[in-house]
Amino acid sequence: MRRSLALVAVAVTAMVALAFLIPLAVAVKEIAESRALADAERQAATIVPALVVTDDAAALERALASTPAGTSRLAVHLPGGRTVGRSRVTAADVASAAESARTVPVSKGYVLLRPVALGGGRRAVIEAYAPEADARKGVSTSWAVLTGVAVTLVVGSVVVADRLGARVVRAARRLGQAAAALGAGDLTVRIVPDGPPELVAAGRAFNAMADQVAGLLAAERELAADLSHRLRTPLTALRLNLGGTGPEAEQRRLAIDRLEQAVDEIIEAARRPSRAVPAGCDAALVLRERLAFWSALAEDQARPWQLVGADEPSPVPVAAADLGAVVDALLGNVFRHTPQGTAFRVTLHRGSGMVGILVADAGPGIPDPEKALRRGNSGAGSTGLGLDIARRLAESTGGGVRVEPSALGGTGVNLWLHTDGRAVGPRRRLLRRTRVRGSRH
């Protein structure tokens, strides 16, 4: 922008300067020529008294020699065609000047022809030569001064335009940087409005928008924390009402423990500062823990299952709670949407800058995998959040989710997490931490 303003200043100032300086340059040249011709006329006037007294050629030659111009610049054309001094014009030029003075351009200068009336009705013509050097004397200096003035005007306009442009660009850059910081999750960023009135108004509008966004997000976090906190009362009642012994009672107690832990994680996430970035975790460890939790239900439903590739550490740039919520959502899809006894397999892949988790089952499959990835459009009997949670977690690292037929004959959900810092945007924490068993999509 500064460059554009500088170019505009150069163009405008140059046009204005040329509009004034070209006529001035022509006027300077004409003034110099007029000055040279006026000097030649003064020289010619010095011969007039001698012509009034005598028209003798010898006397006139002595008179010409006594003038400052001498015979090299002055000449007298007498009646009868006689010429005293050096002439540079033709006889036709002399004849045409017999009635009135005229200027004749010649090689390397100008000649002033002035008629003088003699006695007896005769006329003589005085010839005064003005060299071209005299006609251009001082013109080059004047043109150089005018050029310097033009250059000074252009440079000055460029400096002024650059300063104004720098002010505008600085204010616009600050506004852009603040907008980028706000988009990256820094809700505390504000700017001091500066620059032209339009940018000042834009800066004030940005600050008002940032205040409103921060207020809305704070209210949303408080609402999530409050709603989650309200779940503790019915959970406590469920725990108190839960009685009996045996494997089934123990499983119910474990489920309530997991639900209470999920509620605590939601409250903690809601209270977490908006720019806090969760630490990474070991994907293999998370998979082993979650499969150990789901193994009891799989045994009750006679589901064969496998965990492949989780024997070595696999660090990923997401929080363990986030990854655990995604794994629970994907496994919950398997248990809800496939018949009892359907086998499933969880595979952990490690690649260059990437970790993949494949959850495959031998169920009936998903008729429309593309629709299943669209939030809220998954069909009847589904909230449409499970795969959306997985997709958002993967995209927070620059990865993605793909749904396709599995080798077991059913559905395969591929979750890819980048580990080389290729995230396409600020990492987003998953606020929905509950272990959804009834969300296939």
Automatic annotation (TrEMBL):
Which UniProt keywords are present, listed alphabetically? ATP-binding, Cell membrane, Kinase, Membrane, Nucleotide-binding, Phosphoprotein, Transferase, Transmembrane, Transmembrane helix, Two-component regulatory system
Q: Where is the Histidine kinase domain?
A: 226-421
Q: Is Transmembrane given among the entry's keywords?
A: yes
EC number(s) per entry: 2.7.13.3
Superkingdom, taxonomy of origin: Bacteria
CDD domains given for it? HisKA
GO MF terms, alphabetically ordered: ATP binding; phosphorelay sensor kinase activity
Broad enzyme group: transferase
Topology within the bilayer: Multi-pass membrane protein
Where does the UniProt annotation locate this protein? Cell membrane
Q: Name one GO cellular component term.
A: plasma membrane
Report domain HAMP positions: 166-218
- Stated name of the protein: histidine kinase
Source species, please?
Answer: Microbispora catharanthi
